[in-house]
Amino acid sequence: MPKNKQIHLDNRPVGEAVASNFKLVVSDTPALQDGEVLVRHQFLSLDPYMRGRMNDGKSYAQPQPLGQTMIGGTVGEVIDSRNVKFSAGDKVVGMGGWQEYSVVDGDQVGALRKVDTSHVPLSAYLGAVGMPGVTAWYGLVKIIAPKVGETMVVSAATGAVGSAFAALSKARGCRTVGIAGGPEKCRYAVEELGFDACVDYKLHPDAVSLSKALKEACPAGIDGYFENVGGMVLDAVLSRMNAFGRIAVCGMIAGYNGKPVPLTYPALILMNRLKIEGFIVSEHMEVWPEALKELGTLVATGALRARESVAQGIEAAPEAFLGLLKGKNFGKQLVKLHG
Amino acid sequence: MPKNKQIHLDNRPVGEAVASNFKLVVSDTPALQDGEVLVRHQFLSLDPYMRGRMNDGKSYAQPQPLGQTMIGGTVGEVIDSRNVKFSAGDKVVGMGGWQEYSVVDGDQVGALRKVDTSHVPLSAYLGAVGMPGVTAWYGLVKIIAPKVGETMVVSAATGAVGSAFAALSKARGCRTVGIAGGPEKCRYAVEELGFDACVDYKLHPDAVSLSKALKEACPAGIDGYFENVGGMVLDAVLSRMNAFGRIAVCGMIAGYNGKPVPLTYPALILMNRLKIEGFIVSEHMEVWPEALKELGTLVATGALRARESVAQGIEAAPEAFLGLLKGKNFGKQLVKLHG
Lengths: 339, 339
Prior knowledge:
Two copies of one chain form a homodimer.
Chain A: E1 3-9, E2 22-28, E3 36-45, H1 49-54, E4 74-81, E5 91-94, E6 101-105, E7 112-114, H2 131-144, E8 151-155, H3 160-171, E9 175-180, H4 183-191, E10 197-200, H5 207-217, E11 222-227, H6 232-238, E12 241-249, H7 253-256, H8 267-271, E13 275-278, H9 288-300, E14 308-312, H10 317-325, E15 332-336
Parallel strand pairs in A: 8-9, 8-11, 9-10, 11-12, 12-13, 14-15
Antiparallel strand pairs in A: 1-2, 3-4, 3-6, 3-15, 4-5, 5-7
Helix pairs in contact in A: 2-3, 2-9, 5-6
């Protein structure tokens, strides 16, 4: 059996997460028991939700245990199987964690899913046709419920969720505006991802300034907002929401590290009769088949071409993850573990 | 025709509203035209929403014009009519404004409604069986949608909305907890209004302290919250919301005067997958008949006995209104205009 490099959570962050919270461990891959499958990971997905798991306190999910392999989505290839449902060579999606190999109980419902790579690249099952894509779908379709001609806005626009959001929103006939950091990301959002406009939040020192830029990009106001970041961006968007606007809250990166970031003017919720709803996509498994079908079609037809940011080797995972929390990634953040 | 004392909005508040924003004006009551009705007001309703109308900026409703009679709900008696639908002696509810008499076009839909005072006192049509009651009903039934055994919380618990909320929530089998200011109001909430417990926010210097008191009053957490005040109270309640909790936002008194009051920890919306929705009851006229029917029954059977705070004479309206904004009223704030 191959040697397996893993990244464990060694200690919990005090304030900002740092590289020394993680620890590289090399172990032997255990021999397979009946029903088990050995997966050789090709890609690991890095996602903001992992930061929440690193805390011990009350959060929206179970904390990541100390001294164990970090949780994370993976795609890879079955290289050994003692389960009739899986054979060597199968391409699979699972929650293999921050490691090069995983041993999975192939009979556990939802633990391992075979995927078709004839029209969709394997890595896309961690992004556009995976959890981030379904996240965008749920927030847009189930919470925001857009109408043709409305204006939709998403923050972290060039990330995996934002990219999928753009394709889904354009497919519904909405003006679709992104918020991203830097001219390169904003240009990419418009030229490659199909956004009608993209606002560079880094050009704006405060919410008032960003709000003015949003007014230009959204001349008819904002009807739906998909929230990935929180903080100043949320304040600015709130000031431009139309009456009866809907906000799907999926991420608040600005609040994960250290102290909570306040929302400046909550009375706008009343003034504009807004609906704001937080959600976690893994609690809505019933929508996955419908969402994945639409997302798979968008990818296969080229309507959704999401960019990837790929770190090389498991050792690079912690730095890539810390960069993701600071918005340094450009597109879906992956770690390549095997060719 | 009788002389008519009116309160006009003379100038707009800069920061906190003050008595000199208002001006007493005495005018003649105009002669009735065909279709018009002359109403002698018995009570004027004072409500927090009026503060929002005093501003000129973007708010959730049209600003109150300067130099005109302040908007407001009234109940009274028809004393003269040139409309076949109304006769002298009819008891009516309308939006007569801050004045002793009003001349109303009896044909305008919704302008004037005849009411039955055989089981429900006339003033109740401004409170429990009027706009505040329907407000409580809409927030509880349509936004929070409580389940038997859940815990419901309302701020400004002894006000007109809070009183109705308690009766409606108890009728649905929920633990019902109020938040009010001072021991007298809290005792009244439990002994007279049917709350299971009431937390005195004035005993708590900050949201952390108030949150601890809420934990005692709500040992199973909070599933539904009806927001009337904002500020520290909202922060404290948010910290005790259960997963999938719902918050109906009806008022943010703390934000009307002067500067916006921030919400400290918006990431809780995500962590607990909360739904927060602002509403204005006048935009949901379709629910009024159903709501008024339930509220009328609760009042007629004695299950809802809301307290009133009655100021005497139109001259007393500005001070009573400013007191309401500071929580000085105890129960539904009315102004008695005629016996």
